[in-house]
Amino acid sequence: MKVQTNFQEAVSIKDAMQRERDRDRLEKEHLQRQKEALVNEEAKLQSRITVLEKSCERCPVGWELLHSCYFFSSTETGQKLSWHRSREECKKTGADLAVIDSQEKQEFISRILNGKRTSPGYWFTAGYWIGLRDVKTEGVWKWLNGTELTEGFWMEGEPNDDISKEDCAATFRKENPLMTWNDAPCDHTLKWICERKLQP
Ligand SMILES: [Ca+2]
Ligand SMILES: [Ca+2]
Question: Which spans of this chain does the record mark as coiled coil (predicted)?
């Protein structure tokens, strides 16, 4: 009888140990599945980050976006430079003076300029250099990208090549957003607008 009891005890201990092993195995499988799910989730989030980073490749802080990034030199410092020095400032940031070769861009730039404070002094001192000149052939206006001007947004009576010295173009804050350009001597000092391509 004693032997029988001992045998049954041994069997039930063995069963208990078997059940415990089964529980451990199930638990292990469960953890394995959780781990796989987390690895999957991580991969999904990682690819989401890549997508977000791509779509966030906008403009640097302080630049305005419209197909390219545009930078308006500071109204705070009031710094003004010649056309060439302005261009150099743009180039320091991987940009160049702005090419305003569509009505959409012209309206965009005018809208931003109209949102800025008016500077004191004569109107012609408050312009912004753009990437347009008629240096090679008088009266033939060319953008910095080499294309010839087709649609100009000149003010009334401009460009007038005053005293035969005005070969660089600037845009001004004017009521009519499509009549804001003036030709001025390239060594005049004005503010400037830079344009930089979006990163590919
Ligand atoms: Ca000229
Ligand atoms: Ca002029």
Answer: 14-55
